[in-house]
Structure formats: structure tokens, C-alpha cells
Amino acid sequence: MLAALSNRRFLAYLITAALSDGGYWIAAIAQGWLVVKLTNSPFWLGTVAAVTQLPFLLFSLAGGDLADRFDRRAVVAINNGFIAAIALTTALLVANGTISVWWLLVLGFAAGTMNALEHPVDRAWLYDLVGGRDLGSSIALSSLEWSISRTVGPAVGGVAIATIGIAAGYAAYAVLTLPLAVLALVLRSAPTP
Fold first, then answer.
1. 192 pLDDT exceeds 70?
2. Which of 7, 61, 157, 167 can pair with 29 through a Cys bridge, CB separation 3.0 to 4.6 Å?
3. Any idea what the Cα angle at residue 81 is, between residues 182 and 10, rounded to 5°?
4. Confidence at residue 166, expressed as pLDDT on a 0 to 100 scale
């Protein structure tokens, strides 16, 4: 399984994906705290979370189609650029006190859409990075990375929100998403045999 880690393209992907995925979970914790702070309502907490996740049901198949039709690196770079812009916009709205639950619904749906479109492309990109060799182990390591990010991200998010503030959670998401976008722009696919 560790043979895939000797592939520098895959290792760079794994590190930047861990940063991006960690940022996703940091922002998820920030979103929950922000909704409670704004509304103190379980209804709005559930509604904002549902609207943020709804695009995964609506657009994941379209993301798979993007993976088959377009340059995967370009799609990953563009989508992560949009995700960073949405997260930064949210951070700025929180920081200047103009955020509302309605903004969270709109921005959450937009970020969820970008994630839903990017996620299948990102997973298909693994094949391009490892060139078919070590594909099974790269998928396993990528899944492990997601699980670790899902555990560490909320913990880091909680500490960041408690010490720096809710806007920092969204700003962290914006910053942590950019390395994957840059990597997608500069990294070449594995040579085909």
C-alpha cells in the first residue's frame, strides 16, 4: 500500500487534498456555530446544513460527467478556486457583521455545488496521477486521508473558532483550498505506458 507514496505526484496530491478537506471540515464547524449564533434555532441549523449538502444529491452525477469530458486538472483547479472565493466571501461577510442566514443559504448552496461537481473529478484524477499503477493503494490512502481530515478538521475548527473567531474558520477554508488548485494547475499527469 505504501508504494503509492513513492509517487511524488500522488504524494503532493495527498498533502494538498488533506489541507483542502481539513478546511472543508473547519468551515463546517464554523457554519454550525455561525447559524446558532445568528438564529439560536435548531430549524435553521438543520436547514442550512441540508441546503449545503443538497447539491451532492443534485450534481454529483454531473461531476462524474465533467470527469469524463474535460481536463480533470482544470476542473479541479477551477472548482477549488471558486470554493476559495466563496469561503473568503463568507469570511468577509462574517468579519464585517453583514452575514445573515439567507447569505449562508446562498453561499452554502454555491459551495456545496462546487464541492459536488469537484469531488468525482478529484477521485477520477487519481488514475491520472498514478497512471494505473498502484491505483488501489492510492484510492485506499485517499480514503484514509479523508477520514483523518474528517477527524482532525473539526477539532482544529473548534480551537480556531474559540480562539480567533468564526470568520477564521471560513478564511482557513479559503486558504487551505488554494494549494490543491495550484497543484492541479502545475502538476502533470502520469506518463501513459
1. no
2. 157
3. 40
4. 94
Q: Residue 174: exposed, middle, or buried by beta-carbon count in 10 A (0-12, 13-18, 19+)?
A: buried
Per-residue pLDDT averaged across 142-171, rounded? Answer: 92
The residue type at 154: P
- Section 65-76 average pLDDT: 90
Q: How far is CA 27 from the centre of its chain?
A: 9
Q: Rg of the chain's alpha carbons, rounded to an integer?
A: 17
Q: Which cell numbers hold the place of 150?
A: 474528517
Q: What would the 3-class secondary structure string for the chain be?
A: CHHHHHCHHHHHHHHHHHHHHHHHHHHHHHHHHHHHHHHCCHHHHHHHHHHHHHHHHHHHHHHHHHHHHCCHHHHHHHHHHHHHHHHHHHHHHHHCCCCCHHHHHHHHHHHHHHHHHHHHHHHHHHHHHHCCCCHHHHHHHHHHHHHHHHHHHHHHHHHHHHHCCHHHHHHHHHHHHHHHHHHHHHCCCCCCC
